[in-house]
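quick one, two chains, predict together pls
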Amino acid sequence: MRILLAALAFAIMLGAGGCARSLEPRPATLHETFDRALVARGAGLAAIGDCYGCHTRRDGAPFAGGVAMHSPFGTIYSSNITPDAETGIGGWTEAAFRRALREGVRRDGAHLYPAFPYDRFSLVSDDDAHALYAYLMTRTPVRARPPANELAFPFNMRWGIALWKAMYLRAPAPQRERGAYLVEGLGHCGSCHSPRNALFAEERDRAYQGGDLEGWHAYAIERHTKAPVPWDVASLTFYLRNGWHPDHGVARGSMGLVTAELRDAPEADVEAMSAYVAGMMGTPGAGRAMQGRQLTRAPMAHVRDAPGPGRELYRSACLECHDGSRPMPFGGLPLTLSLGLHGESPRNLINVVLHGLGPGQGETSPVMPGYAGALDEDQLVDLVTWLRANLTDEAPWPDFRRLVREARAMDRSMLDFPPGGAGTDPLAAKAP
Amino acid sequence: MAAFILNGRRASVDAEPETPLLYVLRDDLRLNAAKFGCGLGQCGACTVLVEGEPIFSCLTPVSMVEGKKVTTLEGLGTIADPGKLQEAFIAEQAAQCGYCIPGMMMRAAALLAKTPHPTDAQVREAMQPNLCRCGTHMRILRAIKRASA
């Protein structure tokens, strides 16, 4: 029914659509220079916007596009945003760039798909757009044309996007404090962490209550958070800059791309974003705060260890590393602390048990072997059910066998750990 | 008590359910091809196949393979009658200390069963979880290519 409605709405859009104005190309003879400080500021902003993550293929040249984005309507490939004149944005003036960023319109006037989160980038200031332009226009131009999108009719008609925009584009807001500005706009946290409606737009009244994307679940990051240990500004900042935290766990899937990039963002900006997100989560009540303290002090004491078909699997396969005897990132997280077990969806837990945590290239990253070869569906269901019942106080998840089958069939590209990042010294990042 | 199909034959062992498959294979069943390397699923020396999929037997409790088909290097051939993959590893002299080689061969066997003629890139991708510290990587890659020819 949702799909039918969506199709109907898009059919209406076909009538309403249209094309935006084509903007003059940037003269080939124009040789702008950009101030180094401006380019550096743009680099930090690009890290917050995670431009690299969606615009760089595994083993591909930075920002050359071609990354497959999976939507219910088909596959969309990200575009080349290097300054190549023919296949990238080399022929774009700053005005054309700013319009693409904030209104989702290509230089030639065609509408861009909202897989590019311009519904949030509409909040980016002129100043920041200027720095981002300086940064991107000083990257190495790469000649690369992304594959053609694979979208079903009527979603393959770009002019239908006009109505979508009329419904969902955010009006530029007055300047707010830094964290709110970055989280709501350029950081586009809600693009993954909010549920989406049948037309793939964020549900505004359920903002930040969690969403599913690219085979992973983005957890609720407002007051519905199920984190067993409440997050605070310091733990969020560490997590966002390192991709793991000893009281919370590991970022993977699209979030792994985000944290790999945020290492290169200005620390003050990440701190401001953390403060805003911590504010959305709210101050934990006395009970929850106390429980968090008890958990971090003695995480293994909270395993109930009731007999059951998953118990032997946990004791023999998981406990070897997840017994709290070795600190993260090289030891395993005591699973009583894991949001994967407490969260609103078992999707990430299933993904990680089946496929493990691959090593990051040049990253200080926890690793874990996957059990896809050894565990059959029933065993995995037993294990996940037992973990939820014995290591958390949460209600059992509803039937999740569909998620198990989806996780088994997951596209390899959704499991890749980000190849990028700053290549930091593995020993330099210490647990806080 | 644990029971599974080992290299085509029924095997049953008196072992605690959480005993790693590797210990059962080596200590109870006296099949010494699979090796204990790191014990953390990070080196691949213990690789065997379960239902055709490569797994780290050091981290896999024997209860997890109950009733399933387990294949070890001994299942690919014998010294007198080596299998195709083993012949290729001998022909390329792919072993130096040899400790990693049984695991390498098992992971390669899983690859070739699914992709009989892999490209160089596919071989490298598939073999990524297995480590060799003597440095015969190029010979290992050649042996796998030879077996796939």
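The radius of gyration of chain B is 15 Å.
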